[in-house]
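User: Run a structure prediction on this.
Assistant: Running it now.
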Amino acid sequence: MPALPQPHRRRPLAALLAATLLLAACGGDDDVATPKSVKVDGARKTGDRAKATAEAIVERPLSIAIRVSAAPKQRVDVSWAMSCPKTDTGKDARPTGGTYTVTPPNFRRIALPKRTIAFCAVNAQAQLTRSGRVKVAVVASEKPKPKN
């Protein structure tokens, strides 16, 4: 005849099960949102050596990137500039920028300053080398807004 479980041995298992259910019901911290990359601004132009410009202001940036596409497939000249002041009212003493040539589709991250940043102002231009359609977008993820 098999041994029946003792009533006092069931209590720790029941307590463990109840604690697990309570933790699962509580879930994660709803106040903390996972940052997602979103298109902040975008532009599209068509024509001979078409040039599209996207401008954006990103508050509390975690990452910033430039996305470029073209049709028909061809080389695209991209130029960008970024200014990231430390405070909302300040000016950036060292704005950054650059140029590069790509054959889209292309997604390129821009390095952020390694210091406190209030916001970043970004300008990105993409120009075709021939005739067609060009699209440029500033893509960014932001830190969640602090709760008061």
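The first strand starts at residue 38 and ends at 48.
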